[in-house]
Amino acid sequence: MQVFLADTIDINDQALRIANWRNLRAAAINFIASTPTLPLPGRGNTLDRWRALSAIGGQDLALVKVLEAHFDAQAILADLDAAAMATGELWAVWAAEPPGVVLDFTATTETSGLLSGTKAWCSGAQIASHALLTATAGGRQVLCRAVVDLEYMDYDTSRWQAVGMSRISSGTLMLRGARASLVGPPGAYLDRPGFWHGGAGIAACWFGATTAIAGRLREDRRVKSNPHVAAHLGAIDIALSAVAALFRETAALIDAQPRQAHRHEIVRLRALMDRVASDVIERVGRALGAGPLCTEHDHAQRCADLMVFLRQAHAESDEQRLGEALFDGETRTWRL
After folding, report:
1. 229: containing domain
2. Which of 164, 187, 210 marks a domain boundary?
């Protein structure tokens, strides 16, 4: 008996990773060259911004993760009246602060200094030219801008074993006196309303990928011959229509009241999108079986990528906050 073995690809192969990083960076730079900016949140065209992110997310989740961070950095700089990025640059935003992981900023002048310590969950450090990073100075959080200079930084991706989002590692960055400058006063990164507005942009990326996954079911002929398949598609239509309406409502609210954070509304939107996306992945799989996940690379990769990307949501923790806010009377809802 002759056995034909499929070619195997080790996701830990460094040569493959480097090729993926180069391709991803080239795609991001090409997109930015053709679309240097997106509408800023809270300036009247928030929905257009989210539609653009959704469209990219429907094509490539790794690419939209890179681009969403770049355009988020653009919005942050605008919010804090900081100098804009230059043409040809690719920016990242690294603001995760897990317990026990500390990055210190030591001032050398009134507005500049050195960064030393560790920064976790630095997505795309191998392809970004610049970054906004949160750090600690005098016991307070500060936001810094820095050139990604690997002479003063070590990037460790050895723990990144994800199959989903494998093309964009989120590793740990160790900084050794990297030069940086302050952006805004201490605490400004979290205090600005745009912090929450930007969080909804992530959900727009999820929406685009979710509709692409749902589209695989929508075009399948079994919808006409199998009532269970049709029922799954109908349930998906209900869920996606509901979350799309909430996107439109939330965007209008942000544009009408841009100086408000709208935290409750945005947490609710993200939580709903998380549940809808998870449900769509499950329903498409139940309707079509293992076939598309095993034989259609783009669909299988999109499902795997989205399952990882969705975990930027805070799941039941967000739902807990929503419930507590309602009980305490902090917000009013459920009105037509």
Report:
1. 192-327
2. 187
